[in-house]
Amino acid sequence: MLEFDDVGYGYGAKAWVFRHVGFRLPAATVTAVLGPNGSGKTTLIRCAAGLLAPAEGTVKRLDSVGYVQQAHGNAFAYRSLEMVLMGRARQIRLFHSPGEADRRAAHAAMERVGIAELADRLFPTLSGGEQQLVLIARAIATECPLLVLDEPSTGLDLKNQGRVLTLLRDLVADGMTLLLSTHDPAHALYLADAVVLMYPDGVRVGPAIELLTAAELSALYGVGLSMPAYREGSGVLRRAVAIQYDARSELRSETSPGPVQGPVPDMTAGARPAAEPPSAEPPSAEPPSADPPSADPPSTGSSDPQPQAWATPAKHS
Known about the structure:
Helix content is 25%, strand content 21%. It is built from eight helices and 13 strands. The protein has helices at residues 41-49, 80-85, 100-113, 128-141, 158-173, 185-191, 208-211, 214-221, and strands spanning 2-10, 16-25, 30-34, 56-61, 65-68, 146-150, 177-181, 194-199, 202-207, 225-226, 229-231, 237-239, 242-243.
């Protein structure tokens, strides 16, 4: 499908973005590219799509590639349907116009993404998230077996992020192969079979289950994080990503989620924690004191205010 063989890209002998990148995409799998800003994710994606030529090594493509760029608006007021129809360019002969089959494919792609109602809207008038969905529909309309996507969830709200992630999983289930970049490790956890981690001093490639750990992601992004486990409503056990925004936090990075201690949170929509059972014994009433309360508080032996004792959350082993 797609193979990187010792690929490097740079802007001169001393300005390499990345070097010695090698991986292969098996059919019907998802490979996610992660890394901090400026690490070269978009450059690698553009090399995969054939928009950039590597400075060294080779990129081998056995199939045509559908490409989804980040939405940046458009100066021309095309209708959304016309934007999707542009994805049919490979199927249209030179000096010919899109035919009925091309229009059906464009409408079907918009239906699949869930944006059929946007067909007659002008592309520049759409929100950034809606534009991103139109670009995804355009790539689907190409009917290419390989999709390369540059941060496909950019600009999407939580509901539409979920819609896109579900759509991408359905495409893979239908036999499509995906290479995508993302800033969100949780999306890679949900989708990816393999990952490409773009470090400043090199690139690591391997199975997602081995590389998407709290320790690895903490080193990649330079921030502490933990990966608590939760159970979906379907019963599937998954991991979330909890970022340690405050350096004083007690969050602990773990190399793997480990066994789940205690009950696993149920993330089914509408689920609520179970109420505490009532105590079998009523609280005992304190007998009234024979001595009247003192007007003055007991002396602490110092006129300085006493420090407040703060509870520290217990760490789980």
